[in-house]
Amino acid sequence: MTLAKESIDYIISFLLYGNEEAAKHVHLSAPLEWDALHYPVDITSTPIELRDGEAYVSPDLIYNTFFYISRAEELLNPQRDEHGRFLAKYSILGENNRLHIPQVDEYARMLMKSLDIPMPPSTFANICLTHDVDTIAHYRHLRGALGGIYRGEWKQVLASWKNISNDPAFTFPWLISQDAQVKDAEIIYFVKDTPGWGFDYPQYNLRGRDWHYTRNMLYGSNALIGLHSSYYGHIFNSVGYTLHRSHYLCCPIPQLRRLAKAGITDDYTMSFPDQAGFRLQTTRPVRWIDPETGELSSLTLHPLTIMDCTLSAPHYMNLNEDEAYFEAERLIEKVRQCHGELVLLWHNTSICKETYHKSLYPKILSLL
Fold first, then answer.
1. Which end of the chain is more exposed for a tag (fewer CB within 10 A), N or C?
2. Any idea which fold 126-366 has?
3. What is the pLDDT of residues 216-265, one digit of tens each?
4. Taking Cα atoms as reference points, which of 192, 269, 203 lies closest to residue 230?
5. Where in the chain is the domain with CATH 3.20.20.370?
6. Integer Cα distance of 147 and 156 in angstroms
7. Distance (Å, rounded) from C-alpha 107 to C-alpha 286?
């Protein structure tokens, strides 16, 4: 197998931070071909040779980059959790504790230094604050209200039915006020348009007055709306959406093909649910290359740096608040150093639970 020329050209340009003029002078030192997908090779010597003003790079450098940004490892390793997800603990990145070092960006630094091209400044290229809206209210649907009454929460149920703003899950005004403190940040809320059964429960009515009220509030804060597609990946209504994140961060390779075909341009799912860090080994948005065909797709993957419950959940990292802050701080600093895009995910429901996320989120935003 080999990569399409368009894919190779894209990888070279990506490693040069989009410097198209410099990319014209970078070539492969040997053909890039392989009999079967394999794990990345250790690059021990300088993979770049300069001759007559041209740069010749080792095919290993290009293959390794392709391996990480295409998620090819998922074709080599069949392990999945009960939700069908490929976790960090199954990956060579998790096994070798390499999730904190974006290796592809290190390759970029190596290549640009060899070509005497200055790296971009150590600032964020973009800050993207995202929120998955798994529900807009706990008590304003029948099953939620009955459950609340059964647990003795009838006062909260009545308050919620009187006004949605009284519902504990309706934390949007607080999120809007917090996000507004980060100048020029891009804000995206991912909303569900699913049947609402199984792991998609509960589904709010996107044609009802509660969502109409919520949507107007979000649009009024200059936020964008994206699609939070079904846990059951083959079920999604993409009409009107170009931004996407999969429910449960469950987005296998066939799903990426479906998204591109359905007109989704940007996906924000790319993180391991069980470990924060750089799943794609880059801090920057990158176009997905299909690992089975070697073809460059139209879909851009945005690396998700930190998800709230990844830090706190007992079955994930199980960190206390101080540990979570330290973890966030070092990842955020790495994104800044690489002139990357910082993507954070805080659920609107996580800050109404008995966790530290309502106090941690403002602390993390203060780092920006």
1. N
2. TIM Barrel (3.20.20)
3. 999 999 999 999 998 887 666 777 899 999 999 999 999 999 999 999 99
4. 192
5. 126-366
6. 12
7. 15
